[in-house]
Amino acid sequence: MPNLVLDPLLKKLQACLESDVAEPFLTVLLDAMAVAMLVDAKCRASIHGFEGRYVFKTPDKKVGATAVFGGSHMSVSHQAIDRPEPNVTVTFRNPKALMELLLSRTPDLIGAMLKQDVNVDGNLNYLYRFAFLARHLQLMATRCA
C-alpha cells in the first residue's frame, strides 16, 4: 500500500542514487530514514532499544548533519551538532565518498579510511549499523521506484 509521506522521499532518494550528483544525498537519506522509522513498523523494530548519536560532516563543515536514535525513534538535524558527545563522528571527504561507503553491499570502512575518504571518531560498530539501515532504505527505494 502506498505511503503518501514516505514514498516521495524514497523516490527522491532513488533519484539521488541514480544521478551523479551526491550533494543532497545525506539530507535526503536522513529525512527518508526518519520518516521510515515513523511510518514503517519493520524499520521501527530494527532500532527498538537502540540509543545512538551520529554526526556527519565534511572537513570544511559545509555539509553536515546529526542523527539521534532513541526510544524507537530517530530525529535529524541538518547541521553537525557535537554536543552532547556523539557516539560516532564521521568526517567524509565529499558526499560521494559517504554515499559509496554507506550503500556498498560490503562496506569497506578500513579501505575508505586508508584512502582518506572518511575519518571516523568513535565506535565503528555504530557506523556499520547505520550502513545497514541505509542499505535497507535503499532497497525500499528501489521497490518504490
What topology does this entry show?
Layout: H1 6-18, H2 25-39, H3 41-46, E1 52-57, E2 64-70, E3 73-77, E4 88-92, H4 95-102, H5 109-114, E5 118-122, H6 124-144
Parallel strand pairs: 1-4
Antiparallel strand pairs: 1-2, 2-3, 4-5
Helix pairs in contact: 1-2, 1-6
What does this structure look like?
The structure is a single chain. The chain is α+β, with helices and mostly antiparallel strands and 145 residues long. The protein contains 6 helices and 5 strands, in the order H-H-H-E-E-E-E-H-H-E-H. The chain has helices spanning 6-18, 25-39, 41-46, 95-102, 109-114, 124-144; strands at residues 52-57, 64-70, 73-77, 88-92, 118-122. It has a 5-stranded mixed β-sheet with strand order 3-2-1-4-5. Strand 1 and strand 2 (64-70) form a beta hairpin. Helix 1 runs antiparallel to helix 2 (25-39). The two termini are 14 Å apart. The mean pLDDT is 89.
Summarize the structure.
This protein has 145 residues and is α+β, with helices and mostly antiparallel strands.
Q: Tell me, what's the shape?
A: globular
Total DSSP helices: 6
What is the rounded Rg? 14 Å
- Broad structural category: alpha+beta
